[in-house]
Specification:
- The complex is a heterotrimer of chains A (338), B (307) and C (298).
- Chain B has 307 residues and is mostly helical.
- Chain B has 2 domains: 56 residues, no CATH class; 205 residues, Orthogonal Bundle (MetI-like fold).
- Helices cover 79% and strands 0% of the residues of chain B.
- In chain B, 46% of the residues are buried.
- Chain C has one domain: MetI-like fold (Orthogonal Bundle).
- Chain C contains 11 helices and no strands.
- Chain C is elongated and about 75 Å long.
- Classes of the chains: A alpha/beta (338), B mainly alpha (307), C mainly alpha (298).
- Chains in contact: A-B, A-C, B-C.
- Chain C: Keywords: Cell membrane, Membrane, Transmembrane, Transmembrane helix, Transport.
């Protein structure tokens, strides 16, 4: 059971990030607590708008106006990242904690060669001169499986395919041997065949470099393949937090159940996939009670009135749902409005 | 790259031919008898006929055009009616170089001011500095430069005596015309730089740079500016053309003896061959500069495919 | 400006504007842009001044009276008098309709021809496109106001010729923008569908293409009026436009040149008038662009 593992390299405690817009405050990340165990992989699952990407950017403190990290602690090896100076933070980014992004096509600077972009990391964090850094860049290209790296190192991003570019992004992220790699939808923009290769590469390098990985995705298939623990996010909150086996064999929250039911599976014979009804509510008009209540097939009166806490269950998973509380007794089910 | 340059050179040929046609036709757009208009009323008929003969206006129009082109190819722009001297001599002895100097200095000033202001504005977005710069730029854009020139002369040359109010050549003569001509361009470049920078700063690769631990200053100058400059380069080229045209007004205000003032004097004196010659030379200069800009654009913008 | 939450692209945090109508949301965006509002009000103010102003002034803009020449601004003569003893305030007011008409009609000329060329080029493509675009290239090869200047020089000095010359000077800009937009619209699948259903080219152009490309045209026209007014005043300043005693501001500025030392107001005031009107159109045009075309921020 890794959820309570004491050797967490990164501990997120009650993190809150808000955007202050003309329409009011949007609580994109609304009190999230998670552990990233050493050498393990944490998956964060949610639809777009769930706040999962903003949570990832918050860890590196890459939140800009009109956004702000409002509260919380980010304990990296016991020290709070939110208390560090910008300068200290810079020496952590790309060095101790790295990140790769969803869009390999646009995440590389078009006017520099890929070699220069990898080398820059060494120049910043390891004080190398350009020549040393470039030769390290070639090594890195080799490590991420790019053929003829001596040649590729002088190419520009536009000369490479999407899969190649994501490998370059991984090379940049892993250049300084980080403790934590945050991968924000690393395979979403890629072809299916390439997706598997990239995931394999990340897993492989995780073993080699003994790092922890946070994978942010909307794809439960990716989660099943790569993660040890999983947090399911909905509207800025964690609704279910479990180890991967528990999540897939005994999902608790109706939202998680819905997500799993919408997946094609080979073990169960089903005619139709069930989609979750409705859509994610506007962040300006969040429901008062449980944020999933308007879409939930089991919602009762209390669900529309009070937000449930994240409760620990016997199998050590955590779930934010009234069904798993004492209060769930004679709650009458509410008729869905069509 | 070499292929691109050749292709781009070939593309300018029809443009140059088109420019010569329009310039040539100017003489024929004159309502009524061109020769009569040139010499004015109350002149003996023989003199009018003489002018017509000298200008070759008796030939059929296509023949006239080919004669014109033939002359151009030998560097002959015809003769000035006023001075009877070859227009090539009149232009290239000094006037052309003065106007080029004026346009080049103005471009340098505009680029320097415009880029600096635009970058500050974008980086300090929505700050007092940004708002201030954008208001000044808007005024720079909305001001007739001849009016600015008059004010500068009155204040800095006449009242304060810091600069000389007219002429060209010495430092104290050049400063005010360059400011007058460069201001509008600086405003345009500043606005362009700002919006281009803002667009680039929102790009994914800027986020990547920050996630690498790059300092904000380096993010701006190394990662953002080089990308933001790509569209700005085009504007700089267009501004240079604007300065060649704007020189007409600036040179008139400051009594600078360049191409611009020459063309105005020639229009007033109905010396049409000179009008044709100056317009042609300035336009060809602009075409040439745009060619250079396009080639350097291609050089800077690695993204454009190489076919 | 318009991009909210640049770091959250792909998330659904931007409030949905779908439920408002297109014009409603356009108006909302425009009314949030203070600079655009100021510009819009200034434009309206200029138009009102141009229409009713001349009826409200007590002096004749052309009446020469040497007994009151070169007066400083006073309660009697708000902006003073010029070297011919004419009331400058009156002349500025009477110059307003001239300035606005020159700006408006020259842009109208430029827009009409530019739209025709641009739509033809973008819609039919091929040879038409090649020829038209070469012509546009040639017109753009004349730097700045030089083409307008050359045209006025042969056609003769008058305000009407200035309108024509400045109009021609605007044609290539419109043609390029319209061509680009037409190409973009033409690529849309429903245009192909319309053709498959047998709609005539004329119907497609007037019913589907033109309405779709109206935003960039309106924005460009507004900004172009500012440029046209500046260009026209420059030509008049050079003595190639409005002839005396027309109260055209560029010409008035030229009159005031010789009196800069002792009576700077004669040249300063027409200049300020030009700045105000041009600024109004620039502000309003910028605002329209942000409101109509939030993505094209150039």
């Amino acid at each position: 059971m890794t959820l309570v593992n004491k050797t967490a390299v990164l501990e997120i405690r009650d993190l809150r990030t808000s955007y202050f817009t003309e329409g009011g405050e949007v609580k994109a990340v609304d009190g999230i607590s998670l552990n990233v165990p050493k050498g393990k992989t944490l998956g964060i699952v949610g639809e777009s708008g769930s706040g999962k990407s903003i949570m990832a950017l918050s860890i590196l403190r890459l939140i800009f106006n009109p956004g702000r990290i409002v509260a919380g602690e980010l304990l990296y090896n016991g020290a709070d990242l939110l208390k560090k100076s910008e300068k200290q933070m810079r020496s952590i980014r790309g060095n101790n904690i790295s990140m790769i992004f969803q869009e390999p096509m646009t995440s590389l600077n078009p006017v520099y060669t890929v070699g220069e972009q990898i080398a820059e990391v060494y120049q910043i964090h390891e004080n190398m001169n350009k020549k040393q850094a470039m030769s390290k860049a070639v090594d890195m290209l080799r490590l991420v499986g790019i053929p003829s790296p001596e040649k590729r190192v002088h190419q520009y991003p536009f000369e490479l395919s999407g899969g190649m570019r994501q490998r370059i992004m991984i090379a940049i992220a892993l250049a300084c041997n980080p403790d934590v790699l945050i991968a924000d939808e690393p395979t979403t923009a890629l072809d299916v065949t390439i997706q598997a290769q990239i995931l394999e590469l990340i897993k492989d390098l995780q073993q080699k470099l003994h790092m922890s990985v946070i994978i942010i995705t909307h794809d439960l298939g990716v989660v099943a393949e790569t993660c040890d623990d999983v947090a399911v996010m909905y509207c800025g909150k964690v609704v279910e937090y479990a180890d991967v086996r528990t999540l897939f064999t005994a999902p608790k929250h109706p939202y998680t159940v819905g997500l799993l039911n919408s997946l094609p599976r080979h073990d169960v014979d089903k005619e139709e996939l069930e989609a979750i009804k409705g859509s994610v509510p506007s962040p300006f008009e969040l429901p008062e009670g449980c944020r999933f209540a308007p879409r939930c097939p089991h919602a009762a009166k209390i669900c529309f009135e009070q937000l449930p806490e994240l409760n620990k269950l016997e199998d050590r998973s955590q779930v934010r749902c009234w069904i798993y509380t004492d209060k769930w007794g004679q709650q009458p089910e509410v008729n869905r409005t069509p | 790259m070499f292929q691109y340059i050749i292709r781009r050179l070939l593309q300018t040929i029809p443009v140059i031919i088109g420019v010569t046609i329009i310039v040539f036709l100017l003489m024929h757009l004159i309502p009524g008898d061109a020769a009569q208009v040139i010499v004015g009323e109350g002149v003996p008929q023989e003199q009018v006929d003489q002018i017509r003969e000298n200008l070759g206006l008796n030939e059929p129009i296509p023949v006239q055009y080919f004669n014109y082109i033939g002359g151009l190819l030998q560097g002959d722009l015809g003769d000035s009616i006023r001075s009877s001297r070859p227009i090539t001599d009149e232009i290239f002895t000094s006037r052309f170089w003065i106007t080029m100097e004026l346009a080049v200095y103005s471009t340098i000033l505009a680029v320097f001011l415009g880029l600096t202001a635009g970058i500050i504005s974008a980086v300090k977005r929505n700050s007092a500095a940004d708002v201030g710069i954008m208001i000044i730029a808007l005024f720079g854009l909305s001001m007739p430069n001849f009016w600015l020139g008059l004010i500068l002369i009155q204040y800095f040359a006449v009242d304060l005596g810091w600069f000389r109010p007219s002429g060209w050549g010495t430092w104290s003569q050049n400063v005010l015309p360059v400011i007058t001509l460069g201001t509008g361009g600086a405003a345009i470049i500043a606005r362009m730089t700002r919006s281009s920078m803002l667009e680039v700063i929102g790009q994914d690769y800027i986020r990547t740079a920050r996630a690498k631990g790059v300092r904000e200053r380096v993010v701006i100058y190394r990662h953002a500016l080089k990308n933001a400059m790509i569209p700005v380069i085009t504007v700089i080229g267009l501004e240079f053309g604007g300065f060649l045209g704007g020189a007409v007004l600036t040179e008139t205000v400051f009594a600078v003896n360049g191409m611009g003032r020459y063309v105005i004097d020639s229009i007033r004196a109905r010396d049409f061959p000179v009008v044709q010659g100056t317009v042609l030379v300035l336009s060809l200069m602009f075409v040439f500069v745009n060619l250079l800009v396009d080639i350097s654009y291609r050089y800077f913008n690695k993204r454009i495919d190489l076919n | 400006m318009n991009e909210i939450l640049p770091e959250t692209r792909g998330t659904s945090f931007a409030p949905s504007t779908n439920r408002h109508g297109r014009w409603r949301s356009f108006y909302n965006r425009l009314s949030k842009n203070k600079a655009a509002l100021v510009g819009g009000y200034l434009v309206v103010l200029c138009v009102i001044t141009a229409i009713i102003g001349p009826y409200l002034t007590q002096y004749d803009p052309a009446k020469v009276d040497y007994s009151i020449r070169l007066l400083k601004p006073s309660a009697e003569h708000w902006f003073g008098t010029d070297h011919n003893g004419r009331d400058i305030f009156t002349r500025i007011i009477h110059g307003m309709p001239l300035t606005l008409s020159v700006g408006f009609f020259s842009v109208l000329v430029g827009a009409v021809f530019g739209i025709i060329l641009g739509v033809f080029s973008g819609y039919y493509g091929g040879k038409w496109d090649a020829v038209i675009m070469r012509v546009v290239d040639v017109m753009l090869a004349f730097p700045g106001i030089l083409l307008a200047l050359a045209i006025v020089s042969v056609l003769g000095k008058s305000l009407v010729m200035v309108v024509i010359a400045v109009g021609i000077f605007s044609v290539p800009t419109f043609a390029r923008i319209v061509r680009g937009s037409t190409l973009a619209v033409r690529k849309l699948e429903y245009i192909d569908a319309m053709r498959a259903l047998g709609a005539s080219d004329r119907r497609i152009i007037f019913k589907h293409i033109l309405p779709n490309i109206s935003s960039p045209i309106i924005v460009q026209a507004t900004l172009r009026i500012a440029i046209a007014i500046l260009t026209a005043s420059g030509l008049s300043f050079l003595g190639l436009g409005a002839q005396p005693p027309t109260p055209e501001w560029g010409a008035m500025l030229n009159d005031g040149r010789n009196y800069m030392q002792e009576h700077p107001h004669i040249a300063l005031i027409p200049g300020i008038a030009i700045v105000v009107v041009v600024l109004a159109f620039n502000l309003f045009g910028d605002g329209l662009r942000d409101a109509l075309d939030p993505k094209a921020n150039k």
